Automatic annotation (TrEMBL):
This is tRNA pseudouridine32 synthase / 23S rRNA pseudouridine746 synthase/23S rRNA pseudouridine1911/1915/1917 synthase. The keyword Isomerase applies. PROSITE patterns: PSI_RLU (PS01129). It comes from Arboricoccus pini. The lineage of its organism: Bacteria, Pseudomonadati, Pseudomonadota, Alphaproteobacteria, Geminicoccales. One of its GO terms (biological process) is enzyme-directed rRNA pseudouridine synthesis. Gene3D superfamilies: Pseudouridine synthase (3.30.2350.10). The keyword Nucleotidyltransferase does not apply. It comes from the Bacteria. Keywords: Isomerase.
Amino acid sequence: MLIIDKPAGLPVHAGPKGGPNLEASFEALSFGLPQPPALAHRLDRDTSGCLILGRHRRALAKLGRQFAAGRIGKTYWAVTIGVPPKPSGRIELALAKRSTAARGWWMKVDPDGQRAVTDYQVRGESNGLTWLELHPHTGRTHQLRVHLEALGCPILGDPVYGRDCQPQDVLPLMLHSRSISVPLYEKRPPITAMAPVPAHMRSILSDCGLVDDAAAGP
């Protein structure tokens, strides 16, 4: 496998209209294998950070089983508008897809939807903004974004969820896949990778208490 640091603003694959995308560069990551690597999971276009690629079909199948079993540890950092009701907790809200001709598609809390579970912890606050550490136990589309909106503290810069309380200035989405841990071999420790804080989040996280990126851990 390969673990790469995905930049914010770049979709992982081409949409209906084409355009720049991460998969278009995978040929350069073959490193001697006959086929380029492929996505083992996905990140939203505007989410930065750790992304796993499988280098061949067997690796992708193994990684897929580990994701399905919840064995791969994922840590995200987010900056939210407002403060959660508790300094730490678990969000268990099922999600389902909705679609209209006027709005397109989005995800919504729905008791009849797919199970979705996220743990969160407050790591710092400043001027009405909160630095949250997030641990999703399921991998639903837009899970973190919808869960935080439902908690009453939408992610800063999210153009879809909680948009009514976003600032007037156009900001990038403040969501970062900070680290990922993969138990690739049964008798060895998990392989862990950590992505540095992206440029668009540094100053706000610094205001919220981040002093040393490398020392802050996952």
